[in-house]
Amino acid sequence: MKCINSNCQKEISDDAKFCNYCGTNQPERTKCSKCKCVNIPQKAIFCPDCGERLDTSPGGAEILRLALNLTESKQREKEFRLEEERKKREVEEKRLAEIKAKEEENRRKQEERKKREAEEKRLVEIKVKQEEIRQHKLAEFNKKKKPIEKEIADLKLSLEKLNHKEKLYMNNRFLFEKENAILSRWRSSGLGDKIEMLKKDYSNEYQWWQEMLSYWISFLSSGWDSYPICFKEYFMNFLFIITYPFRLIVLIPWLWIIILFLPIYIIGYPFYKIGYWFDLLKLGWSYKKKHKEQQNIYCKEMDRIDIDKCKIEIFDISDQISSLQDKLNSIEEEYQTVIRIW
Known about the structure:
- By secondary structure, the chain is mainly α.
- The protein folds into two domains: 1-56, no CATH class; 152-341, no CATH class.
- The protein has six helices and no strands.
- The chain is rod-shaped and about 205 Å long.
- The two termini are 93 Å apart.
- 3% of the residues are buried.
């Protein structure tokens, strides 16, 4: 409201008793019950702002003020109650919204879980179906593969046998050519070279002198038994007669040794040389015969094998194995393609 001092007319509070600017006492003002206006002139009957009739009875202003205060208190209480109700309603709405959001979240989670379970179930069914298809394709692949693998194994076994025959033929051919080279060398060599060849050939089994000695002893033993008995007696008597004078010389043993063994050596040396050359001839014949027999054995082994036919069969079987392997690879590639698709 405004100060009643006409020179001041400053705005002061409605319940002020003094003006804050000029210090003029402010009487009680009549307050409009409708627009709450207090700038009402004294003795006024109507409110200059809203035209509401004023209560001008004695004590009416105080009653009006109390009524207004009561009304304002009720209004404030009402507003407070409404505010409390509004807050409660907001809290309840918030709680309901939270519950609804939680229910919505639970519902969404349940839907997602159901969708996930359905998807997992669908994937499991797909995997089971894929596995069934894989097993079916694998069975078909094995059904096609086993006869081919068996045929390849049989062909490989046949190829191994043919390779063994070819290797055996080549080994016999090598040994045949070796024996042929030995015989060619024997025919083209001189006496000294032949003797060296005999020594080299028999050196692995026994010494040369042992071979000669065995032949010599065998010849003598078989020859002595075949002599007539009269010849044996004559020879023994001849030895007894010619050795009788020398048996008297017992005091000179070395002379006895010289006289006894020198004639034996002189008589026996030509026989030794004859036996030596006879043994050489016999060993040479045996050497040549042995290598010729070995050559014939290798030649027979080679004749038993048709190497040209064997090579043609090896080529054909290798070609068959290659074609079957390509067929098997194509079947396996087809199987792998189906597996990748599924």
